Amino acid sequence: MNQDNKLAIIWTSADKEVAEKMVFMYAYNAAKFEWWDEINFIIWGPSSKLLSEDKDLQDYIKKMKEAGINVYACKACADMYKVSDKLSKIGIEVKYMGKPLTQYLQKDYKVITF
To answer: Coil, strand, or helix at residue 96?
Structure first.
């Protein structure tokens, strides 16, 4: 696998319109059309609270997972918003993401943040 063809998407925004009209749409299509060999979608900060409360976004996340996207939520952030359990229940792997993000950067993944 080409190391240069791996992507990490960091989603931090609590803006639903940004999520639906850009972040999720790009991530899903990138998987569907195989633009990347690996896509890691990281829910970080205020986005974790938004996702825990929004059924439409939760359904979209399930669709993204079915398309082969690895979906994670930062445990420290989710704990701050008291939503770790809610995110786990919808099938998201909730874990501390500082070290994995550092590894993505060190291994030269392409990283985009919204």
So the answer is: coil
